[in-house]
Specification:
7-stranded antiparallel sheet; Nuclear Transport Factor 2, Chain: A; alpha+beta; 29% strand; 4 helices; 2 domains
Length: 160
Protein backbone atom coordinates (compact mmCIF):
# COMPACT_ATOMS: atom_id res chain seq x y z
CA UNK A 1 0.00 0.00 0.00
CA UNK A 2 1.11 3.46 -0.70
CA UNK A 3 1.86 5.79 2.15
CA UNK A 4 -0.95 8.28 1.18
CA UNK A 5 -3.63 5.54 1.22
CA UNK A 6 -2.52 4.29 4.64
CA UNK A 7 -2.54 7.85 6.00
CA UNK A 8 -6.08 8.49 4.60
CA UNK A 9 -7.41 5.31 6.21
CA UNK A 10 -6.07 6.44 9.58
CA UNK A 11 -8.17 9.63 9.56
CA UNK A 12 -11.67 9.47 11.04
CA UNK A 13 -14.92 9.43 9.08
CA UNK A 14 -15.73 13.08 9.81
CA UNK A 15 -12.33 14.29 8.65
CA UNK A 16 -12.67 12.38 5.38
CA UNK A 17 -16.27 13.44 4.68
CA UNK A 18 -16.65 16.91 6.20
CA UNK A 19 -16.83 18.59 2.78
CA UNK A 20 -20.31 17.18 2.11
CA UNK A 21 -21.46 16.45 5.66
CA UNK A 22 -21.25 20.02 7.03
CA UNK A 23 -23.31 21.57 4.18
CA UNK A 24 -25.85 18.77 4.61
CA UNK A 25 -26.21 19.60 8.33
CA UNK A 26 -26.64 23.30 7.52
CA UNK A 27 -29.34 22.53 4.93
CA UNK A 28 -31.14 20.22 7.36
CA UNK A 29 -31.03 22.89 10.07
CA UNK A 30 -32.49 25.50 7.71
CA UNK A 31 -35.22 23.05 6.64
CA UNK A 32 -36.14 22.34 10.29
CA UNK A 33 -36.38 26.07 11.10
CA UNK A 34 -38.51 26.80 8.02
CA UNK A 35 -40.72 23.77 8.69
CA UNK A 36 -41.21 24.78 12.33
CA UNK A 37 -42.15 28.31 11.32
CA UNK A 38 -44.66 27.04 8.77
CA UNK A 39 -46.15 24.71 11.39
CA UNK A 40 -46.71 27.55 13.87
CA UNK A 41 -48.19 29.83 11.19
CA UNK A 42 -50.57 27.03 10.21
CA UNK A 43 -51.46 26.39 13.87
CA UNK A 44 -52.27 30.05 14.46
CA UNK A 45 -54.34 30.30 11.28
CA UNK A 46 -56.47 27.29 12.32
CA UNK A 47 -57.73 29.33 15.26
CA UNK A 48 -61.55 29.36 15.39
CA UNK A 49 -61.87 33.07 16.38
CA UNK A 50 -59.46 34.04 13.58
CA UNK A 51 -61.42 32.13 10.94
CA UNK A 52 -64.80 33.39 12.18
CA UNK A 53 -63.62 37.02 12.11
CA UNK A 54 -62.04 36.60 8.67
CA UNK A 55 -65.32 35.25 7.28
CA UNK A 56 -67.26 38.20 8.77
CA UNK A 57 -64.81 40.75 7.36
CA UNK A 58 -64.96 39.17 3.91
CA UNK A 59 -68.78 39.30 3.97
CA UNK A 60 -69.11 42.83 5.42
CA UNK A 61 -70.31 45.52 2.99
CA UNK A 62 -68.38 48.37 4.66
CA UNK A 63 -65.13 46.39 4.58
CA UNK A 64 -65.65 45.49 0.92
CA UNK A 65 -66.42 49.13 0.08
CA UNK A 66 -63.23 50.39 1.76
CA UNK A 67 -60.87 47.54 0.84
CA UNK A 68 -62.35 46.24 -2.41
CA UNK A 69 -63.30 42.71 -3.28
CA UNK A 70 -61.87 40.10 -2.68
CA UNK A 71 -60.53 40.57 0.84
CA UNK A 72 -57.80 38.11 1.77
CA UNK A 73 -55.73 37.50 4.88
CA UNK A 74 -52.01 38.16 4.62
CA UNK A 75 -49.47 35.38 5.06
CA UNK A 76 -48.50 36.63 8.53
CA UNK A 77 -49.94 34.69 11.47
CA UNK A 78 -52.40 36.48 13.74
CA UNK A 79 -50.95 38.32 16.73
CA UNK A 80 -52.46 38.33 20.17
CA UNK A 81 -53.37 35.63 22.60
CA UNK A 82 -55.64 32.65 22.82
CA UNK A 83 -55.88 30.21 25.70
CA UNK A 84 -58.23 27.29 26.27
CA UNK A 85 -58.24 25.28 29.48
CA UNK A 86 -59.02 21.58 30.00
CA UNK A 87 -62.62 22.49 30.76
CA UNK A 88 -63.03 23.99 27.31
CA UNK A 89 -63.21 27.57 28.53
CA UNK A 90 -60.97 30.43 27.57
CA UNK A 91 -60.56 33.74 25.79
CA UNK A 92 -58.94 35.09 22.68
CA UNK A 93 -57.85 38.50 21.52
CA UNK A 94 -56.43 38.26 18.01
CA UNK A 95 -55.14 40.87 15.60
CA UNK A 96 -54.43 40.14 11.96
CA UNK A 97 -54.03 41.95 8.66
CA UNK A 98 -56.27 41.72 5.62
CA UNK A 99 -55.70 43.15 2.18
CA UNK A 100 -57.95 44.06 -0.71
CA UNK A 101 -57.49 45.81 -4.08
CA UNK A 102 -58.07 49.26 -2.51
CA UNK A 103 -55.88 48.89 0.58
CA UNK A 104 -55.17 46.96 3.73
CA UNK A 105 -56.53 46.91 7.28
CA UNK A 106 -55.86 45.57 10.76
CA UNK A 107 -58.62 43.40 12.25
CA UNK A 108 -59.02 42.95 16.01
CA UNK A 109 -61.28 40.18 17.30
CA UNK A 110 -62.26 39.28 20.84
CA UNK A 111 -63.94 35.98 21.61
CA UNK A 112 -64.91 33.81 24.57
CA UNK A 113 -64.92 30.01 24.70
CA UNK A 114 -67.24 28.07 27.01
CA UNK A 115 -67.48 24.28 26.83
CA UNK A 116 -65.52 24.26 23.55
CA UNK A 117 -67.94 26.70 21.87
CA UNK A 118 -66.43 29.99 20.67
CA UNK A 119 -68.57 33.13 20.65
CA UNK A 120 -67.37 36.36 19.09
CA UNK A 121 -67.51 39.42 21.31
CA UNK A 122 -66.44 42.10 18.86
CA UNK A 123 -64.68 42.52 15.53
CA UNK A 124 -63.06 45.89 14.77
CA UNK A 125 -61.44 46.86 11.47
CA UNK A 126 -58.91 49.72 11.18
CA UNK A 127 -58.25 50.60 7.55
CA UNK A 128 -54.76 51.96 6.88
CA UNK A 129 -54.88 55.75 6.58
CA UNK A 130 -58.28 56.08 8.28
CA UNK A 131 -58.59 57.94 11.57
CA UNK A 132 -61.09 55.60 13.20
CA UNK A 133 -61.78 51.92 13.11
CA UNK A 134 -65.24 50.57 12.45
CA UNK A 135 -66.99 47.73 14.21
CA UNK A 136 -68.53 44.90 12.22
CA UNK A 137 -72.09 44.16 13.22
CA UNK A 138 -72.17 40.66 14.65
CA UNK A 139 -74.84 38.13 13.70
CA UNK A 140 -77.44 37.32 16.38
CA UNK A 141 -76.74 34.85 19.18
CA UNK A 142 -76.84 31.23 18.01
CA UNK A 143 -75.93 32.09 14.40
CA UNK A 144 -73.11 29.81 13.15
CA UNK A 145 -71.22 32.89 11.96
CA UNK A 146 -71.05 34.13 15.58
CA UNK A 147 -70.90 30.90 17.58
CA UNK A 148 -68.89 27.87 16.52
CA UNK A 149 -67.74 24.70 18.22
CA UNK A 150 -64.02 24.07 18.35
CA UNK A 151 -63.32 21.01 16.22
CA UNK A 152 -59.88 20.34 17.67
CA UNK A 153 -60.42 19.96 21.38
CA UNK A 154 -56.87 20.56 22.46
CA UNK A 155 -55.54 22.40 25.45
CA UNK A 156 -54.13 25.36 23.63
CA UNK A 157 -51.83 28.05 24.85
CA UNK A 158 -51.16 29.72 21.56
CA UNK A 159 -47.56 30.69 20.80
CA UNK A 160 -48.72 33.96 19.25
Amino acid sequence: MSEELVQEQQHGWVRRNWWWFVPLLVCLGVAVVIGGGMYYINLAKRSVPYNMALELVQADDTARQRLGDPIEATWRPPDGEQAVLETGSGTAKRMFDVVGPKGHARVTVEAVCEQWIWTLGKVDVKVAGARKSFRIELPPEGDPRRTREAVLRENIVDPY
